User: Fold this.
Amino acid sequence: MTRSLGVCLACGEPLRYFEAAQEVTCEECSRVETAHAICQSGHYVCDQCHRARGVEHVLATCATSDLRDPIALAQQIMADDALYPNGPEHHTLAGAALLTAYRNAGGALDLSAALVELRRRSLAVPGGVCGYWGTCGAAISAGMYCSIVLGATPMTLGPWGQTARLTSRILDRLADVGGPRCCKRSTFIALQEAAAYTAETMGVTMELPAQVTCTFMARNAECLRTACPFFPKRAHA
Ligand SMILES: [Zn+2]
Ligand SMILES: [Zn+2]
Assistant:
C-alpha cells in the first residue's frame, strides 16, 4: 500500500468524499459496508485495514517509551510508515501519547491497563468524523485520555465536566484554524491543549517543545502551508 499524499491506499488516486454514505467493498479484506469516500478509480479501504498496523505501532511504542513530551512521542510514531498521512490510527495516537507522557511525567497511572482501554475506545471512532460528526478524532482521543486518568463515566460529576472542557478547548482551536483536515495538525493541537490543561488542573507537567514544526507536509496535498501554525518558518518564502 502507498502512503503518499493521503490518497487511495490501493492505487494512489485522490479520494472523493460524499455527503451521504454509499455501499462499498474493501480492497484489502472484501468487507462490504457503507462509507463516505472512494478513490477516483472506485477503490475503498476500510478503517480496520487502514489503521491495523498504525494502531499496533502506536501501542507498542508507547508501552516502552520514557518520553515526557507527548508531541515528541507522537512525531516519533508518525515517522514510521505504519502511520499514514491521515487516518483513524490518529484517533488512537493522541490519547496513547498523552497517557504515556502523563505517566512518565509522574502521573499515577497503570499505563498497560490504560492503553488497553484506550485501544478499545478509540477503535470505535471511525475515520472522517471531523467532517461528518462535528468533532475530531484527535480531540476525542485526548478526551479518552482525560476520561481514563480521571475515571470519568457518564455518571461522574467533576470528571464529566473536566473531560468535556478539554475537548471543547481543543475543538475551539481546531475551528480557529479551519479545514480541510490534517491529522498531524489536529493531533499537535490536541496534544498542546491537553498537556496545558493537565498542568493546570491535575498538577502533572508534561514536557512540550518550545516550537512544534511539522515535517509531514510533503505527504499532505491539502496542507494549509503558511496558514498552519506548524508549517516551518524557513519554508515561508
Ligand atoms: Zn484507488
Ligand atoms: Zn478492509
Summary: The pocket of zinc ion (ligand 2) is lined by residues 26, 28-29, 31, 46, 48-49 (CB under 6 Å).
